[in-house]
């Protein structure tokens, strides 16, 4: 059944798609990966690989969704009747369940930190004490589960309202606010005494710091920072009118993603360098180092609240898209079922995520292949599910969909040179599968 819901405007679609891509990865994961892999050279590799590989993959998912106007499973079934290719959509739905189950746990941590910052609970801590506070926060089972429930509750509330009243409306509010907060934080960060060193570290590439590991990590970040691999963008583009310019829309999402990732680095690294701290703190950069950094600044408590609000907005917009792919598959174009499906799905994901939420406390002794339940779920999604899904989608678009159909969809609503399609087709068929395969085997630890 064709989707009955539609985006009301092109900007609404672009902001929602960008919101999906601009999640906690851009603001949390990208800065610490850049900090541990050479700063400016990692940023340069990320930008180049996003344009060369990430953008063509994003456009491929847009083509699948808009051409069929159907949910993630039905879209593949429509384009490859009588085959098993629709299991790409099934894989995307399964991975989305697992992803949101632990992603909501991290969202809960942000909710907790925001509450603590608003109520003054993050005052007068040293860097070491912030480290202990983070360990205490994630180990408290009641606090972790309650915060996860609150985060998922907000997500369900938006998604159940529908494409126009929920996803599009929230994106039109949250994304501009996100940029405003980013601008305020950026001005504060780069005007700190000693901030110049941090700006240069992030913006000045040092070719001597290029390593095979940094290259593959940047490639993985470029691919998955755009939410490609689990058919989220297939779902979002299925709500587009047939005449929309997919190339321009994909370009807008890519540019916004690069801008946000760059802004995150320009907010974080100047502040870190200004206070004499190291940029290679890893995953604890946001929850341990930054609160300590903000505490040392005039009006630091206010700026910490702003940063946590920013982080929460970005995390929520991604959560909306992850839940939407599941809801869309079950609803199958019947909007009257959306509210019930969203609530029930949210409750199932909440129950599924409880083990991850308490895996740093009550279930800390329970491990899977040496990993906590949270880390095992993360590994399953990030190292197996996402790259496998992206690889299958590249094969599907490059070798299963007839070239003439791809060409028709590529140019529908767009005015670009014919040579651009030939370049995109070559990349999607030959270059991108090799790149994704390298990321896949690297993420599984076959080579470093």
TrEMBL record:
The chain crosses the membrane at residues 12-30, 42-64, 85-115, 142-161, 173-190, 210-234, 254-277, 297-330, 342-364, 384-402, 423-447. The keyword Oxidoreductase does not apply. Its main location: membrane. It comes from the Bacteria. InterPro entries: Na/ntran_symport (IPR000175), SNS_sf (IPR037272), YocR/YhdH-like (IPR047218). It is found in: Membrane. PROSITE patterns: NA_NEUROTRAN_SYMP_1 (PS00610), NA_NEUROTRAN_SYMP_3 (PS50267). Keywords: Membrane, Symport, Transmembrane, Transmembrane helix, Transport. NCBIfam families: Na_transp (NF037979). This is Transporter. It comes from Sutcliffiella rhizosphaerae.
